[in-house]
Every structure is written in C-alpha cells, then in structure tokens.
Amino acid sequence: MSSCLPQPPAESGGINITLYGFSIMKESMEKAIYPGFAAQWKRDHNQDVRFTSSFAGSETITNQILQGVSADVAILSIDRDAMRLKQSGFVTSDWHALPHNGIVNKTPFVILVKQGNPKGIHDFADLAKPGVKVVHPDPVSSGGAQWSILAIYGSELVKSEKQSGEPDRARALQMLQAIWRNVISTPGSAREARTQFETGFGDALVTYELEGMLMKEAGKPVEIVTPQATIFSEHPVVVIDRNVTAAKRPVVDAFIQYLWSDEAQKAFVKFHFYSVTNNAFNEENKAFGHIERPFTIDYFGGWSKAYPEVIEQVFKNQVQKTK
Q1: How much of the chain is helix, strand and coil, in % rounded to 5?
Q2: 11-48, pLDDT tens digit by residue?
Q3: Domains (ranges, CATH) in the chain?
C-alpha cells in the first residue's frame, strides 16, 4: 500500500550530472568548474549537485554517447561531433542558440619540443625536416588531431595568401604530406599524445597550447613553439536531451549557462584556455603566446566544409593514403 503515500521527488536529496568531455577538459572541470557550480547551486537552492565524468578523444566520447552511455552533457573538441549527436537524435536543442554559438572556451595549436629545442623547430614547416620524429594524435578518434591538421594546412594557406594574394593549396598539401611522413606515433587523444611525449618519445608534438602550459607548470623539460599562423580550436557544449530527465533539466540548464559566467570563464583562463566572453580575462594569463596570424574554423567556411574538404579530401585521401 506504500504506493498511496506521497513520494518525494526522485532526486530531491541531490542531483548527479554526468558529463563526457574531450581529453584536455579534465583539469579545469574537476578542479574549478564542478566545485564552483556546485557551491553556487547549493547556496541558491540548498541542493547538492555531484558530477560524474569521463574524458577521452572527442570522436571517442561522441561514439560512446551514440552507443548509449548515460551522459547528460558533452563538451566536445569539434562542432562536427555535436552535429553527429544531433543527426542521431541524442541532441534536440540548438546549442548554437546558446551564448557564443555554444562555444565555451578556445585555445590555439602549437608545437611542443624538448628543452633547448635541439632540432631547431620554429614553425610547422620545420616538422618536415629530415630526422624530426613527430607525435600526433589520431584524426580518427581525436578532435584535437583534426584541429591540428587544420592548423598545419591552414597556416600554409594563410602565409601563402599573404605572400601572393592567393592561398597555395598545393604548397599546403606538400607540407602536410612531408610532416606526416615524420609522424612516428598516432595516440587516440591529445592527452594520450602528451603522455607519450612526456615519456621522452619523439622530438615534437603538435597540440593545444594549454597542454604545453600544464606540462611546464608540472616542471616537464619542454618548450612551446608558437607558429606564425595557427588555428584557435573552439569547443562546444551540448545537452544530451535524450538522456536528461524533467527533474534534472533545470539544474543541467543552469550548469550550461554557468559556463559563460565570469567565474567560470576566469577559471578556464587559469587552466590556460582562452575566455570567449571577455578578452580582459585573457590578459591575466601572462603565459599565453603571441600569434602573428591567428585564424579560426571560419577561414575554411566552418566544420561543414572543413571536414569534407580538408580532413577527408586532403588528409585522408592525399596524405594518409600516400604515406
């Protein structure tokens, strides 16, 4: 007969949000964003919020969500992964309607080298020099790897366009091919690639700037080489609408909005992401490198063009297959 008694709301004692994030989100989320939001929600609603999370390559976590893991929120490396979740019906809300088109933070792509830069690497082109061993995450599983391909290829387009008025696609392809011939390892995520490089494997690693900054903070013997022209990767957040219960929805929506709060954006900068809301916050991080010619995914016409035209037609068909 107990079913006749009034039942308390299923999650009144506390709510758990499950977040899947691409690999380099781990530190900022666990050390700053989760505790910051939980404290705010407790103060305003007297309810405990806990977080469960899993971090891996962006394509990997997207595939896991498509296979049915119970994620409520995903922070992805590339907008294309968000599109895949939408096309499969897991995401029904429009993340582009969120602040800043759903982008929560950004970071440029750089080259990490051993202390003293023994191979004399000063730009992407130097990665093609004979005898340089490059560690590069796998574009099949890692969003960071796809950003890296766009950074290398796009940098040559940007520089050739500055020199001659026209982007030289043949020159950009040749450089990407030459660099890829020097790639000795393709780990599954940017974080796995960093771990491998930290153990002394390879001469250079193309990765997110913040990975180099975290390594330097930890006292690792590395230097960050900032290319003359490079891409800023921009990272979207999506709600996995199919999985979020009505009881959980208000707190999930509040958490999403919190990501653009001053508190959260300052926390991202502290963990070496660039803020998307306020450039003054970025000036607080004196370790950020100077990029002469930064560009974004818009240079390629967005992910809907960049993926088929560069990742598939250039990289998969003309670089990977010919190695």
Answers
A1: 50, 20, 35
A2: 457 999 999 999 999 999 999 999 999 999 999 999 99
A3: 2-105+234-283 (3.40.190.10), 106-232+289-320 (3.40.190.10)
